[in-house]
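Internal tracking record. Fields below are filled automatically when a chain is submitted to the structure queue. Please do not edit lines marked as system-generated. If the sequence contains nonstandard residues, flag them in the REMARKS field before resubmitting.
Queue: standard
Priority: normal
Entity type: single polypeptide chain
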Amino acid sequence: MRVCVVLSGVGEKGEALITFQQFSSCAGVVEKVVIAPPGVELGGMWRTYTTPYPESTEALGKIFAQSSADCLMWVDMRRVAGISPEAVMRCVSTVEDADCALIYADYTEHPVNDYEPGSLRDTFDFGPFLFFNRKRLDFKNSRPYRYAGLYELRLALSRQGPFVHLREPLGRRKMVADRERERFSYLDSANREYQKEMEAVATEHLKAIEAYLPPHFFPLPPDKCPYPVEASVIIPVRNRVLTIREAVESALSQKAPFLFNVIVVDNHSTDGTSQLLSELARKYENLLVLRPERDDLNIGGCWNLAVSSPHCGRFAVQLDSDDIYEHSYALEMLVELLRSGPYAMVVGAYKLVDMDGKVLPPGLIDHREWTEENGRNNALRVEGFGAPRAFRTGVLRQIPFPNVSYGEDYAVALKISRLYRVGRIFDSLYLCRRWEGNSDARLTPEKENSYHAFKDRLRTLEIMARKLLNRGVVHE
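SYSTEM-GENERATED OUTPUT FOLLOWS
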């Protein structure tokens, strides 16, 4: 098989030379292509395309039009430090054996995840390269994209043949300087045009696999339950003695023209959190502290305990034990929007800050990408719905959280959005405080992979459910 190797995002000639030298003994590599940004002169024994949009449909179209190769290996040099010499022939052998659409592999430093139908996020980590089987490239671009050409190609291929993950290290990864900034990059207003293209491509893919949902919603289920208060702020906690007082007092200081309480689920804390909560409960009569009998509850299970409690109000409002509300009217704003329309869930906006209140990049997280028409479809592509979240308790009692401590909110929000309307407040109501004690601080690659895999599986299950819904199979 003849292979075309494409190096994207090359910043200097030496980088391309070193990478191509890895394939010097590989007879299968017959074409070498470099994509460089404007102003970078590379020269060399390869074809060079100069463009500010290396993953555009135009760039991809030119490469495929001028290539006679059977397969194409795509290497993003912004993220990859080198490719193993055996990588090309290993992929060629796999294409010959499996006739798959795409092949990818692990980094030398750590493995990557298996691809599944729910791996829709455009940030899915395919390791050091993408290896395309051109025989499977049988689709036409819906329209030209500056940013989403490669993403469109990948999703189209997922509909035309299997993806094979070679569970072996075939390349080295470059270090990312600011993982926190990268994590929230899809929410940066500077990337809005990029995100619009990604949403358009993901939406067309969902239509192609019959998982797209038009903006038609079910009416809210009847709820005749008598509630003791109108709203409850729910705070699951375990071992947060340094932050729980501020979180609780932030909730208790809310000003609202209705009765509310604060329900803290103390999940067997051992660091003094329990004693501090007992002290606060003696001081504030609308603070309730629940302590589970079970010792196997995670955050989702703690939420279910609070929501099923007879003390829970008509609306259940989220506050994490690390965080605080930005002002004293956040609760009222969330509840008033829930009251104002047929919303099962309402989501506000928040700022990312340090423990001193200093705003951290990217600052405001408002999920402006959300629309009434397409928000629940695009939610299958992005990492989450945002915060703070407020729910109708009656709906949560029918759609419980999974008993996990990561992605439990995303799981519930996906299912709620499948059936019911979700309201949005784009003003900041909440301060998400980043510190060394955050449960998602300093994640190992293995833990990060497990988190991504969990959300990918949630998306896979949700896609299956939405396909059934489109066929008229409804389980409200």
